[in-house]
Structure prediction request, 668 residues.
Amino acid sequence: MSPKTLYDKIWDAHVAHEAEDGTCLLYIDRHLVHEVTSPQAFEGLRMTGRTVRAPEKTIAVPDHNVPTTLDRAKGIDNEESRIQVEALDTNAKEFGIHYYPVSDVRQGIVHIVGPEQGWTLPGMTVVCGDSHTATHGAFGALAHGIGTSEVEHVLATQTLIQKKSKNMKVEITGKLKPGVTAKDITMAVIGETGTAGGTGYVIEYCGEAIRDLSMEGRMTVCNMAIEGGARAGLIAPDQTTYDYVKGRPHAPKAGAYEQAVENWKTLFTDEGAHFDKVVTLKGEDIQPCVTWGTSPEDVLPITATVPAPEDFEGGKVDAVKRSLDYMGLTPGQKLSDVEIDTVFIGSCTNGRIEDMRAVAEVVKGKKIKDGMRAMIVPGSGLVRAQAEEEGLAEIFEAAGFEWRLAGCSMCLAMNPDQLAENERCASTSNRNFEGRQGYKGRTHLVSPGMAAAAALTGRLTDVRDLM
Amino acid sequence: MDKFEKLQGIAAPMPLVNIDTDMIIPKVHLKSIKRTGFGKNLFDEMRFNRDGTEIADFVLNKPQYRNAEILVAGDNFGCGSSREHAPWAIADFGIKCVVSTSFADIFFNNCFKNGILPVVLPQEQVDLLMEDAERGANARMTVDLEAQEITTSEGEVIAFEVDAFKKHCLLQGLDDIGLTMEKVSAIDTFEAKDSAARPWV
Prediction:
């Protein structure tokens, strides 16, 4: 048998039907659903008299629209947002799918809840009407975002019509330097490949620096595979993965667990398997990163200066002119001189317990800069509870942060957590697009430690200077 | 889904690279639970001032492009969020074909589900079509999906590739779910075999 990549193996294990032209029906093991991209899909089922084929494999949680303020039990003020969440309540009940309502302590961002509850397991196919489904690739699951028509397709058939992508390897060799995190790895990779560098590929991240990451860190890396244009990002499961999964509510129980682990141990890329594209970065070369523009590929080390349009070629020249104008930055300006009004810590990229700990380590016993608006939004109610149990919440509040309830919040600003015009934010989220965090808001993507450092100094700051 | 008929129409040039789905339809307009009505907010923040007045120099606000049915765009069109509201807005506005050197994966798939043809061409050919589009309303292009050809207003013919299955579905206006339902026995067989092999799933 010819050697296979991890992606080849998961793909092959899920092909329910293959047509002569290579178009496949790929079986879907887990379907995650949130309130924004699903109502039209459920409506489609109703209109055609179809049902959900495998409700036991379908999990729904409201996250995009939900308020994160402590008074959210009073309901959602925005009528359209409220209707979307109510539609999900109704659809989950009517179609009999697993549901974590806003009032449930387990509610949170869908990509944090899935792994936390043990729904996401190695070797699975996982989809969701959300591009950051790539997150689940950290478990060695083939996970990607889909559109609403495909949400309806999966609800009705538990399959997707797919053609196989190509294989891409991203290797991070060696060790990371202190102050450098999973977020910096994933941003550095996009800086290297560009936002279309992964188009047509599934990425497997490997190398010592990836192996050394916790599950939380691996989820951060895979989360932004989509920002590099890849269909999915994958990391082969290992003991770190098995240990994370064990004992979670929907993970296999004793007996089944051992059987599952035996299967998971076969999930690796065979020696000599072919990759269509290979990118290698040295872990020790990666520095704390920050974005300066309005595309996630606009990445530089915090020690750098703002580039000029002339530094680029082709269509990127005009795009950079537009970006710098939008961001209010001048070529040659030191990134560490850029002043910040707002800090947002959270999202499916960096809303897990390890991220909370990284922030606490930087801000413990300190105060955020006067006038700074700084919020920490845990990725789930359980992350919030754990951070409180570990005493992190007290550290945040003493430092001057707002400590919120779980949701997507200012990552995409569909709820009231938004930037005002020209407000500038150091954000642990995943997209710095124009208007992403609010109309004319300006976003600089950073790691949790870097966001914490910016909150203290009031400007983009090298977290290593505070260590 | 409507069938994709041979299209002859005005092409609007949008040379900006990395046009993301947040630009195509900002999140404040994602709150509807319907599939229709998004066209009025297509490219909302590029197209309108906050008070709702039009930004005159945005391409789709120019008189010659208001009825554009084709978009010639910069690299990596449709990157970012998976929101199908983006192709819904494009289709609702009346655009049926987008040409670029590359598209983001999810957006690309979403187009086919909504009767929109995304055409990938090499840079030189996109440049040629961009130039043609810049001539305005008198320069009508023809997109022939059956023949897999775009003809410029000057009669130059450019061939393009398209996945055979996706082409068939677009031409016939086929519903994917209906097609898959015809293969339900294959899904049943897979499920039975797989649940024996991986009972924990």
